[in-house]
Amino acid sequence: MYGAPLREEEFMPAYVIQYYKPKKMKKTIHYFIAFLSFALMSHFAVAGNDTLEVKTTAVCKTCKKTIEHNLGFEKGVKSSNLDVESGIVTVVYNGKKTNPEKIRIAITKIGYGADSLMADPKAFNKLPDCCKSEDGHH
Ligand SMILES: [Cu+2]
Known about the structure:
This protein is an alpha+beta fold. It is built from six helices and three strands, in the order H-H-H-E-H-E-E-H-H. The protein folds into two domains: 39 residues; 84 residues, Alpha-Beta Plaits (2-Layer Sandwich), CATH 3.30.70.
């Protein structure tokens, strides 16, 4: 199936062969390994992150600020972004430190409904009037 092995000269132009002289080749390999381990490390660094989408009763920019700000204090939550149009908050969290149920409960304690969970009444009452929306509309 395979012909006689090609000599370097046959498939590499002279300037490439020059570049791949053993010493330089070794260096290239070192760079490659360094790059590979870096890529691998960054892969594992993000491996601990999970993403969750929660439908909230948020209705305005103030709701967005309130929810994102407060979720920032929640254990295991790395970041959150609320889409005002849909009321859906996307939460990036560490699955070893928290879970979707805890995050939903945290949202209810901020004063908003989270998926099927109702807002905590006390927290809800403390919200600015513009944010007190039970059906998701002003
Ligand atoms: Cu609001």
